[in-house]
Amino acid sequence: MMQDSLTRRLARHLSRPIEPQDRERARLHLLDWMGCVAGALPSEAGAIAHRMPGTVGERAAWLGNKLEMDDVHRQAILHPGPIVWATALSAAAPDMDRFLGAAVRGYEAMIAVGATFDSRHYAFWHNTATAGVFGAAVTALASTDPDFAEGGDAAARKHRLMHVLGLAGSVSGGLWQMRHEPCDAKQWHVAHAIKTGLHAALAVQAGARGPSYVLEGPQGLHAATTTTPNPLVLPQRGQIPGVSFKPGAACRHAHPAIDAALALKAQLRKLDGPITVETYADALTFCDRPDPVDEIEAKFSIQHSVALVALSGVPHLGDFDAAAIAATAPVRARITLCEGTDFTGRYPAHFGARVRCGDHEVSLHDTLGDPERPMTGADILAKTGALLALGGRARDLDHVAAAALDGTNPATVATILEGWLR
Fold first, then answer.
1. What are phi and psi of 336, to 5 degrees?
2. What is the pLDDT of residues 178-227, one digit of tens each?
3. pLDDT tens, 79-110?
4. What is the rounded average pLDDT of the residues 362-387?
5. What 3-state class would DSSP assign to 408?
6. How confident is the model at residue 20 (pLDDT cuts 50, 70, 90)?
7. Residue 371, pLDDT above cutoff 90
8. What residues pair up with 361 in beta bridges, in sequence order?
9. Taking residues 57-86, what's their average pLDDT?
10. What percent of the chain has pLDDT over 90?
11. How far is CA 193 from the centre of its chain?
12. Do residues 286 and 339 touch, judged by C-beta distance below 8 A?
């Protein structure tokens, strides 16, 4: 008898009832994502989103991860919000309970699959894209399939979930090459995952079947993209409480150094002389950029972010443009990066860094916005307000907050985004 497949196990897990507290937590992530979309409206991705056909969710997919402020799960090393919420809007669940429940299931699926990928996968593959097709497919199916409504057939749910995971996973992809060139592939990865998930859900509801061993099979995703995949972890409690919010615009791998630098500057009042940053190996792989040349590279530069702290304190949304890059050059020249093996050993369960200036240093093992150092609801609302202002939509804050935090109809969220993207 063959061992139970990973997708079959995951499908059973995903068919469980949604806990009320997870739906409430999801509302905060919806608010956060709407802010990220609004903040990116003036960008080149915003122009693309306006020109693209499709649902408002499919167009908003181009914006949710543009500013590097989207939510993140540490162990899976991915950003679920931009995938899940754009899919949920595209699938158009009939009521808010189904909308939020579908999103919670999408987060759960995306994180569970993403956490099975190893360092070999992450070296070449964009986890948000490769796991994102699974999250999008589950979100779409749970939004539209009548058996996900109260009183639906649990066996039918499990059956369709397994097949939608199999179909979506069979075309999973998304390479990191886009990090090395000025392009829009990172946004395209999100849009592609959403489209794939929506089509997989439609196909399964029409009777299509997917491979149940798509992850661990001899020619499956793990065999193709990993050396030693991690076990599939299906915790008793939902995964969404473990998702971190990002307080700032830099890559999440830069945030531990930002936090440690801010704490050290609070002690010393200024950061003069040579500055040394120790952090985990992946942070160096992605964010060791002593001489960024554009906004994207600046957001992926620990040196630029720490220099901003030294010059002015907390980095702000506008601190990554050409003028800011030029202003940080003298400080970047005195910043040295190196691996801290203690931080690498705790990663990815913990994102940490140590910043040293002269005889003084600060070490932090968790970053602001992580479950161990959470942002409050008021913090997330303030972040949303700043993003709306950046996107020229400051007047919409009360409307956005009401729709996300207290709304009873997901169509209200869609209407707000239609107003932004028409």
1. -115, 135
2. 988 889 999 999 999 999 999 999 999 999 999 999 999 999 999 999 99
3. 999 999 999 999 999 999 999 999 999 999 99
4. 96
5. coil
6. very high
7. yes
8. 356
9. 97
10. 95
11. 13
12. no
CA distances from 262 to 256, 266, 321, 362 (A): 10, 6, 21, 9
Could you tell me what percent of the chain has a pLDDT over 70?
100
Burial 287-315 (b: 16+ CB within 10 A, else e): bbbeebeebbbbbbbbbbbbbbbbbeeeb
The whole-angstrom separation of Cα 416 and Cα 399 is: 8
In angstroms, how far is the first alpha carbon of the chain from the final one? Answer: 55
Average pLDDT rounded to a whole number, residues 233-246? 95
Q: Give the closest residue to 352 by CA, choosing from 263, 226, 233, 273.
A: 263
Compute the C-alpha angle 24/250/417, nearest 5°: 50
Query: Is the separation of the CB atoms in 127 and 228 below 8 Å?
Result: no
Helix or strand (DSSP H, E) at 278: strand 275-279
pLDDT, residue 317, reads 85
Q: Given this model, what pLDDT does residue 337 score?
A: 98
- What is the reported pLDDT for 301? 97
- As a whole number of angstroms, the distance between CA 174 and CA 186 comes to 8
Count other C-beta atoms under 10 Å from residue 237's C-beta: 10
Sign of CA dihedral 90, 91, 97, 102: negative
Helix (H, G, I), strand (E, B) or coil at 229: coil
User: In which band, very low, low, confident or very high, does the pLDDT at 1 lie, cut at 50, 70 and 90?
Assistant: very low
Residue 2 has a pLDDT of 61
Contacts of 5 (CB under 8 A, 6+ apart): 162, 212, 213, 215, 216
Mean predicted lDDT score pLDDT of the chain? 96
CA 302 to chain centre: 19
Does a cis peptide bond (omega within 30 degrees of 0) precede residue 94? Answer: no
Residue pair 296/182 in contact (Cβ under 8 Å)? The answer is: yes
Longest dimension (CA), the chain: 67
CB-count exposure of residue 150 (10 Å: 0-12, 13-18, 19+): exposed
User: What is the side-by-side strand order in the sheet with 335-339?
Assistant: 335-339, 275-279, 353-357, 360-364
DSSP string of 151-168, one letter each residue: T--HHHHHHHHHHHHHHH
The count of other CB atoms within 10 Å of the CB of residue 179 is 15
CA neighbor of 246 nearest in space, from 119, 386, 106: 386
